[in-house]
Structures are given as structure tokens and as C-alpha cells.
Amino acid sequence: MMLVSGARPPSRLDLSRIALFAIVSSPPANRVLLPRTRHTAPKESTHRTLCVTSSAMPLAEHSSLGVAPLPIEDEVSTQDDVLKSNQGSSDSIVFRVHEDRYNGVIVDPDSLPADVPTFVYRLERSLASWREKQKRGVWLKLPIEKSILVPHAIEAGFRYHHAEPTYLMLTHWLADSPCTLPANASHQVGIGAFVVNDRDEVLAVQEKNGPLKGTGIWKMPTGLINQAEDIFAGAIREVKEETGIDTEFVEVVGFRQGHHVAFEKSDLFFVCVLRPLSSEITKQDSEIEDAKWMSLSEFGAQDFFQSRSMLKKILEVCIASKEKQYSGFGSRAMSTGFQRKLSHFYFNTAQMGKL
């Protein structure tokens, strides 16, 4: 059958008839509905008008992925044509992944398309492939520049795991068994730095902000550990930032665990003893109202310590460490055997002969 003669170029009507012939003659599983050429949408809104059908998912179910199906009379193109134009070949339909050690997959962010229709279609096919391979969990990292894809991933069954300034992590549990994917980080880690010199003077600060603002209470320098920062390194850094004093880490004398602290997360607070290497104070103007060397007796006599059993015990343990009557946990760098880089193990180095 000759659809287009060589005597004249095909008209818009002829093209519509060709499209109608294609939709009648092609199998339902290979149809892709495209926007009508006579209703050209703005470029930025075209992502809302594509819907792909397959034998694995009926047309009506695509609305659950956030893509509305089009009327049957709209012009169509074959599925293979769309795949070749968008992906280069049908082999790249499924997202590239890294397989983890727990029979799960981690989607390569670089394999994610930026346009919604392609993402929705490839996500559907990828999920089908992973289920067929009996994968258990999926980790989907969406860069912030592709945040438009988030609601479509949610419609496909993904859930929020955590967010960082440059990306959002989503997960999807595929197995029939209860989900065993690890939850988001549950704790924040803080330190308190007890720094005492040879004259029995404690490095004390008053806060410019926070709950102790304007109370006149003198306390040890405190702060939160940064990502990828060791506890001992964070203690040294916080003291330097708040007071300008250089120190060396001696030991962790104890720690406290609290719950429902920041954003309903738990809190670990490590009390560290440090030895000063300098004496001239330069306070941090943005966070510290005042800083000074304060006699240990005056520091401990404050009602702030005497009326709170935990703070009183913390101070007693710090003083006992200074007087060599108590040994806390020192730090040693060693290999875990699971990774090449060293990590720090905290243990009672004094009683272990500093091995």
C-alpha cells in the first residue's frame, strides 16, 4: 500500500492518516502516545504530555506515576523510534546501577535523564528488571538540579531517606519481606573540651547565643563534630575556633547520650580532656561573649555545676583525670580490615600500657 506518493510532499492530513494507520497496525504493547503536532506546547511544559504504554503496565495505571494518559486520537510514534531517539539504543533503557553486598542496587545518578517522560518510562522498566532479578532494595540519589523528578519517583513507590544541600536520597523496598534498609542517621555528635593549664586554671567561655546567653555562666568550650571528622580532632578544632588556644588531645573521660534533641534525633556528647599548647586567648566574636583562664575552684563552685548531678559528675571525672586518679579512653589509629584508610579506636591506653 502506497501511503505517500512521490508526486507531492505529504500534507498535514496525510501525516495524520499515516499516524492513524500506525496506531491501528502496531501492537498495543509498542505504542507511544505523543503530543499533537497541531497543538505545540511550550518547551518547558512538554514533560507533562507523554505517556508510554506497555504490556507490563496498562495505560490507566500510568496516572499513578504522575503522567496523565493522552486521548487515543492523538498522533503516535512507535516505542522503538522514541527509544532510539532518546537513548541511542534499547540496551540503555534500564538505569545503570552499582550492586551492593545486600542484593540491592544503587542507581548511578549520571544515568538519570533530566526530562520527566524519559525518566518515568525508564524507571518503570528498571523496576520491572530489578524485580525480575529479585533485587531487594533500591537507592535513588537525585541531584538538586533534577529535583523535578522527585514526585514521579514517589508515585512509583519510592520514599524519602535523607537530604543534603546538593541531593535527595530516595529508597524503594522491592522484596516481600520486611524492609531492612538502614534508616537515616539517628544521632548527632558533640564534644565538650576540658582544658586546664599548669596553674590549675580552666579555659572557660561564655556563650553569645543559645540557652546560656546572658546568664553569666562560665562553661567549657563545646560544639558539634563535622562530617568525616574524628572526635579528638573536633575537640581540638572547637577550642581553637572559640578561644584561639592550641591544644593536644589527652583522652575521652566519658560520654552522655540524649534523645529527641535536634529534629527528634538523638545526641552523643563526648567529654574530652585536652592539654593547652598556648596561652593567649583570642575569642570567637560570632559565638563567644567572653573567654578567660579561670581558677578550677571558682569554675567548679558555680551553681551551674553544683545543682546538676550530671554536670557535677562530669567535672569530678575531669578533675580526677587531671590528677591522674582516673584514666579515660585514649585514641589509636589503626586499620579495621574492611577499608584501607585508618580509623581511630578509643580505649584505656593507660591500663593497656599505651600499646
Task: Find the count of extended strands (DSSP E, 2+ residues).
Answer: 16
Rg, rounded, reads 32 Å
Distance between the termini: 89 Å
> Could you say which overall geometry the principal axes of the C-alpha atoms support?
elongated
Largest sheet: 5 strands, mixed
Order of helices and strands: HEEEHEEHEHEEEEEHEEEHHHEE
Strands of the widest sheet, in order across it, are 4-5-6-8-7
Low-confidence stretches: 1-91
**Could you tell me the strand content as a percent range?**
25-35%
With helices defined by DSSP (H or I, 4 residues minimum), what is the helix count?
A: 8
Overall pLDDT metric: 79
How much helicity do the residues have? 10-25%
Oligomer: single chain
Q: Structural class, please?
A: alpha+beta
Structural write-up:
This protein is an alpha+beta fold and 355 residues long. It has helices at residues 12-25, 79-87, 116-132, 150-155, 231-243, 296-300, 303-306, 309-322; strands spanning 31-33, 51-52, 76-78, 97-99, 105-107, 137-143, 159-164, 167-173, 187-195, 201-207, 222-224, 247-262, 265-276, 288-295, 330-335, 342-347. The strands form five sheets. It has a five-stranded mixed beta sheet. A four-stranded mixed beta sheet has the order 11-9-13-12, sandwiched between helices. The chain starts with 11 loop residues before the first helix and ends in an 8-residue tail after the last strand. The relative contact order is 0.08.
